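Retro notes
What went well: the complex prediction finally ran end to end.
Inputs used:
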Amino acid sequence: VSRVGSVEGLLRELAPQVLVAVVRRYGDFDLCEDAVQEALLAAALQWPADGLPDNPKGWLVTTAARRRIELWRNESARRRREENDALRTPPADPDPPPQTDDTLALLLLCCHPALTRPSQVALTLRAVGGLTTAEIARAFLVPEPTIAQRISRAKSRIKGTAFSMPDDAELPSRIAAVLQVLYLVFNEGSTASSGTALHRVELTAEALRLTRILRAAIPDDGEVAGLLALMLLTDARRPARTDAAGELVPLAEQDRTRWDPGAIAEGVGLVTRALSEAPSGPYQLQAAIAAVHDEAPCTQDTDWPQILGLYELLAVLAPGPMVTLNRVVAAAMVHGPRTGLDALAQADPALAGHHRVDAVRAHLLELAGDPQGAKEAYEEAARRALSVPEQHHLRRRAAAL
Amino acid sequence: VKYLILLLHNSASREMFTSLPPEERAAGLAVYEALTEELVDSGELVMSSPLADESLARRVTVAEGRTSTTDGPFAEVKEHLAGFYLVECKTEARVLEIAARIPEAEFGVVEVRPLMDMSGFEG
């Protein structure tokens, strides 16, 4: 969903810049963030009717600064003295040249380690993404008051935190947190099926946009490039992921002519460059795996030995139950279904009871020529699945045997 | 994954709650409040609410296009829903940990059910 050119697109693009300008001038992130939200809402109502102001960013900064004073007045009498100080502060240049460092500092603040992951996600989408509380609530299928409360708690928790770059020792772990937040937003959007949760697809576009902003701020970071590539290479398959009836189509059965070649080319370029330059990390490896899939004409002609090698590296760098399971699938594609079934039997105990294990077992039993065992495993996987389209898919597979 | 934590009441738990002296009942309520606070802070709470008395329950039946209702409480029901927490947790272990902190757990009437998601996957 591209909104480039629309008022909404412009507002989202300007949101972090306006917030940075206002925070730089007044310092209090909490109140400034509320004021910028109100300025964005005012613009969303006025601009489509009245046309764009000559200087949209300046308009937003001025409006937000005014709203901030009003909000401050409403707050409490104990702040009166500070308010007078603030009123005397000469206004800064409302339109300073954009500084990518500022946007990075803003992202880092929203993903502050004092906040839990859901709070980081909500705050990032609002303060950097310029989404409204209502939009965030709709996207995450959570009531609006819950998100509002989450954002206000998050802001009070980081109150007084300096709006500046962390030192070099801390920076890598802080950037890693931003990447996790952006990946989470992306996944939330990319697992949404088009028929049932259309508005969630927008999260995918939003995650891509914010990751591009992050990449502009730190172009030499291999993992940022890796994450952007992973998002592009995954999103490229979206048009083929559901059929005309809205049912889910697994990777192996997708019509690959419907994949987005532009996104694939950009993703492949990014990950190839990143892997040749920077030390490799989990996002680059996952992007490389996605690239191998995206460049293959079909499942049979996929370079499975390369995928297996990449999963083996990933299992060292970022082990986890899903990596284990995917490695089993790759091993089965290279060495045959029996190897996969043996590996599954010895797999991570963390996988026990997960429906994806039953789904993989079912598929491997099918390949190994045991339709009865496969049918039972598909049925068990369907019973345990927590997603409706996935359950439909698994039941179809069981019924086909 | 989103989970629904169901707080059921049976005769034993109901009797216990109604027979509590006021100060102990207040302490019990404080346990729910503290839990709710914590779940808001952690971002895991989607929503929670107690339910009104079971005598206010209504069963709706539509037969041949005509709607009729039956008033509660329903004698044949041994356990009835008294409240719920809708939470989003990373692991099942975490939601079980939350459920164990609900006072009703003492009576074995707290039930955890994962929600079905309408979204897909790509496997």
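What we learned: Residues 248 and 390 of chain A are 7 Å apart (CA to CA).
What to try next: split runs per interface for comparison.
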